[in-house]
Amino acid sequence: MASGTSGGREYSLVELFAIKFVLADVLIIALLLLAGPVYALLATALIVLGGLLLWHFATGDRDESRGVEPERASEAVESAAANADPVTTLQERYAAGELSEAEFEARLDRLIESNERANSASVDTDDLSLERRR
Questions:
Q1: Are 13 and 58 in contact (CB under 8 A)?
Q2: pTM
Q3: Alpha helices, DSSP H, located in 70-123
Q4: Where residue 72 falls among pLDDT bands split at 50, 70, 90?
Q5: Of 22, 74, 106, 115, which residue is 20 to 30 A from 55 by alpha carbon distance?
């Protein structure tokens, strides 16, 4: 939740904002009297900016604060799956039920054999495919 504790007492978000701005007023008045109006104005701007950031992070929805829309999130997952290595793709297909255990083991064996042959021939294996090319 958005509450703080101090000495056994819990403060709500509204109370935390009130305390913050009371202390900010004291600081601004002290700066105005002791340092001058420019420093008081700068402190006011920093305090307001801090309050806005605190409010944004305390009340914002997790997905909205990151700016991720549901459609784009699924596209990102699909893109990550497309860039996954062949073994991971094979495992995901087996877990999704697209492959039987025998098919999974046969394709995994074929992939391992292909990888070993490519390594012995000093060929980069990043472009290996799970399916046979026709």
A1: yes
A2: 0.34
A3: 70-82, 86-95, 101-120
A4: low
A5: 74
